[in-house]
Amino acid sequence: MELKKEIFREYDIRGVYGQELDEGTAYLIGKAYGTKLRELNKKETVVAYDNRLSSPILEENLVKGLLETGIDVLRMGLATTPMCYFAANYYGTNASMMITASHNPKEYNGFKFSYNGIHNAYGAAVKEIYEIITKGEFATGEGTVKEVDITKPYIDLILNKIELGDRPIKVVYDCGNGTTSVIADQIFANLNVESIPLFNVSDGTFPNHHPDPCVYDNLTKLKEKVLEVNADLGIGYDGDGDRVGFIDNNGNMIETDKFMIIMWRYLYNKVENKKALFDVKCTKALEDELLKLGITPIEYRTGNSYTRAATAEHETPLGGELSGHVYFRDKFPGYDDGIYAGMRLIELLSHTDKPLSSMLDGINKYYSTEELKIRVEDKIKFEVIEKMKQYCLSKKYNFLTIDGVKAKFDDGFALVRASNTGPNITMRFEATTEERLKELQDKFTAELHRCIEETK
Predict the structure, then answer these.
(1) Architecture of domain 153-358
(2) Catalytic residue among 54, 55, 96, 102, which?
(3) From the candidates 14, 52, 209, 243, which is the catalytic residue?
(4) I need a surface site. Which of 369, 399, 418, 419 has the fewest CB within 10 A?
(5) Catalytic (active site) residue 102
(6) What does the DSSP assignment read for 267-279?
(7) What pTM did the predictor assign?
(8) Do domains 5-149 and 153-358 have the same CATH topology?
């Protein structure tokens, strides 16, 4: 298969298996990643893969490429992305390669990789892998393979960072047949809570629902189970375990930005560094609440490689983004782990008699759309965004350009940005009234379509 430049995206390498990437692609990526590791004077990396059907064969060829560059491989096999992050730190390699397409549909696969154990490669560092491959100048050597299992120390890390109170908690957790199926049961079995699992058998065809817990339709069965068993909360995980979603005791979805409000109300007087990082898609209610609590808000671009790096740079005790990535640094290593994020909400609830449904009382009210996607070819989407910037300039709007265009008004915002994980432009709108929300959505959607037609 011809190497496809477009799979080397902003946060990772990702494409449709059999159409955009295959075993040969994985082999070349292994050789390029190994070559870069050698350039950085690194001799060892962790490798793991999620439960997508194409993952084992991609991993086999990736490892082959790595070994031929003289890199020693700590081979984890099937594991969640957070387990891969943990292993890189645990073994001191601070380098990792995870085969996963995260929340993309089952036909996709990809590669997330790190050189420092702090955050994944992004931007130019991802493009560099493509450049190394096209040059064809690979390091040579004879690496070794060591099979490793970090299940016990990983479980210990999770459980040792949770301090339950006296209140008994009942929780439903939904693995969505994703990779958390291989570890979640063992963690909950050792936690002193009543837990009810859903779809906790690993199946890379995702037969029950797509494992993206930030899409409400994917949480329907979790909601039904929470209400059926009268649970205190429901937790959903994505395909590789680095993202999380929540259902409260009344069956309502708690978006990640609202989850961060809940957690900051719990944490603000327990941490010294009073800074919070969140992405441009988050509700203004989060910023409002942070300011009330005396926390400095840091608004940042979307993309977990970026937000995780920025959270580490600013040493924020808690950061995250609307898509479900959450980074705890108050007593955790700071990587995005859906299982651990859910445990922190369980911990919070165990220390109060209040139901989860009351935890957002008193926040400012805004009306928001979901993240709306308009399919646009990859080759023109950034040009379209540039035209939207010019539109905002012509209207003299106050706007941010840290990630696409975010026009900010006294009574709401309009966000238009190019997706870095697929051929889409995504939009999100928010306002203080439903009428204003519709006005902003109609105006910017019409302008976006005009810009798309003009660019074609």
Answers:
(1) 3-Layer(aba) Sandwich (3.40)
(2) 102
(3) 14
(4) 369
(5) yes
(6) HTTT-SS-EEEEE
(7) 0.94
(8) yes
User: Is there a catalytic annotation at residue 449?
Assistant: no
pLDDT in tens, the chain (456 residues): 899 998 999 889 999 999 999 999 999 999 999 999 999 999 999 999 999 999 999 999 999 999 999 999 999 999 999 999 999 999 999 999 999 998 889 999 999 999 999 999 999 999 999 999 999 999 999 999 999 999 999 999 999 999 999 999 999 999 999 999 999 999 999 999 999 999 999 999 999 999 999 999 999 999 999 999 999 999 999 999 999 999 999 999 999 999 999 999 999 999 999 999 999 999 999 999 999 999 999 999 998 999 999 999 999 999 999 999 999 999 999 999 999 999 999 999 999 999 999 999 999 999 999 889 999 988 899 999 999 999 999 999 999 999 999 999 999 999 999 987 778 999 999 999 999 999 999 999 999 999 999 998
Mutual angle of helices 338-350 and 256-267, in 10-degree steps: 50
Do the Cβ atoms of 106 and 53 come closer than 8 Å?
yes
Looking at 325, 344, 417, 428, which residue is catalytic? 325
E strand map for 189-344: 194-198, 233-237, 244-248, 253-254, 275-279, 296-300, 318-320, 326-328
Domain map (residue ranges) of the chain: 5-149, 153-358, 367-455
Name the DSSP letter for residue 253: E
DSSP state of 137: -
Pick the CATH number of 367-455 from 2.40.110.10, 3.30.310.50, 3.40.50.170, 3.30.750.24: 3.30.310.50
CA distance 5 to 284: 37
CATH 3.40.120.10 applies to domain 5-149: yes
Taking alpha carbons only, the member of 385, 423, 433 closest to residue 407 is: 385
CB under 8 A, 24+ apart: contacts of 411-414: 411/436, 412/284, 412/366, 412/436, 412/437, 412/440, 413/284, 413/440, 414/440, 414/441, 414/443, 414/444
300 - beta bridge partners?
279
Distance CA 329, CA 319 (A): 8
Cβ distance 260 to 276 under 8 Å? yes
**Cα(92)–Cα(412) distance, integer angstroms:** 46
- In order, the DSSP letters of 13-77 are EEEEBTTTB-HHHHHHHHHHHHHHHHHTT--EEEEEE-S-TTHHHHHHHHHHHHHHTT-EEEEEE
Count how many residues are written for the chain.
456
Give the 3-state secondary structure of residue 262: helix
